[in-house]
Automatic annotation (TrEMBL):
The keyword Ribosomal protein appears for this protein: no
Coiled coil regions, renumbered to chain: none
Localisation per UniProt entry: Membrane
Membrane topology according to the record: Multi-pass membrane protein
Lineage: Bacteria, Bacillati, Actinomycetota, Actinomycetes, Kitasatosporales
Family label: Belongs to the CDP-alcohol phosphatidyltransferase class-I family.
Signal peptide range in chain numbering: none
Stretch list, region Disordered: 222-253
GO molecular function, one term: CDP-diacylglycerol-glycerol-3-phosphate 3-phosphatidyltransferase activity
Composition skew (Low complexity), residue ranges: 222-233
Listed transmembrane segments: 35-55, 67-86, 180-200
The keyword Isomerase is assigned to this record: no
UniProt protein name: CDP-diacylglycerol--glycerol-3-phosphate 3-phosphatidyltransferase
Length: 253
């Protein structure tokens, strides 16, 4: 975990932190046991608790399903607050960067698998959502050296619709509400697929731009290295005339 920045611990270079004394105290105490990480840990602990509540008394008891819904709702709410607190009070740590996405996928994955196992949700729906979530995670790592794929509005809407839809399925709903949850889940699945394809497009574009930038930098270094030799002028002309150099120049244009 990265501790509090030096500028936050005193000195003339200290940077003001939103939140007054509370914000300053939070920055000074940034560590593994800060409030943002504690919320993330709580969400991880809620995952097995949610599963136990879901399957208690056969998995179809409305009362226990309500308790399971409460655990799921708390987990989803903490997901909103831990990231906000970490960014606002400079509590971002290595643990949080790793544990937060794991906790998010763990609670959602547990809910989907439980619902499909109990026969409330088709397995193909669970498969599509989990495949998308895991696939996007792998995709982010694939292009991470070229840049970061930012979270889009569509992605945030997808997360919201998934949370609402899964929460409605966790509850033992009947009648019109049971019909409504079907359509909410349908919207969530569509957004899951559409935003997933958009992330793939962004990843491909980002990788192409990164590779073009690398080729341009390599060509520039070659030109500078050639210029330093006794026969610099001739070497520069030869290097500049290579396909790689020409391609880098075209990419920059």
């Amino acid at each position: 975990m990265t501790g509090a920045p030096a500028s936050a611990t005193g000195g003339s270079g200290a940077t003001p932190v939103r939140g007054g004394k509370l914000g300053t105290a939070a920055v000074n105490q940034a560590s593994l046991w800060n409030i943002a990480n504690l919320l993330t840990m709580a969400r991880l602990v809620l995952v097995p608790g949610f599963v136990v509540l879901m399957f208690h008394n056969g998995g179809y008891d409305p009362a226990w399903r309500s308790f399971a819904w409460a655990a799921f709702a708390i987990a989803m709410i903490t997901d909103l607050f831990d990231g906000h607190l970490a960014r606002t009070y400079n509590l971002v740590t290595d643990f949080g960067k790793i544990a937060d996405p794991i906790a998010d996928k763990a609670i959602m994955g547990a809910a989907l698998v439980c619902l499909s196992y109990l026969g409330d949700l088709p397995w193909w729906v669970t498969g599509v959502i989990l495949f998308r979530e895991l696939g996007i995670t792998v995709l982010r790592f694939w292009v991470i050296r070229h840049g970061v794929i930012p979270a889009s509005r569509g992605g945030k809407l997808k997360t919201l619709s998934q949370g609402i839809a899964v929460g409605m399925y966790v509850l033992a709903l009947t009648g019109p509400l049971a019909t409504l949850r079907f359509w909410v889940m349908a919207v969530a699945v569509v957004l899951t697929v559409v935003t997933g394809l958009d992330y793939v497009r962004q990843a491909v574009v980002l990788r192409r731009q990164g590779l073009a930038a690398e080729r341009s930098a390599a060509a520039q270094e070659a030109v500078e290295a050639a210029a330093e030799t006794p026969e610099g002028a001739g070497d520069v002309d030869r290097v500049a005339g290579t396909p790689g150099a020409r391609g880098a120049a075209e990419a920059e244009r």
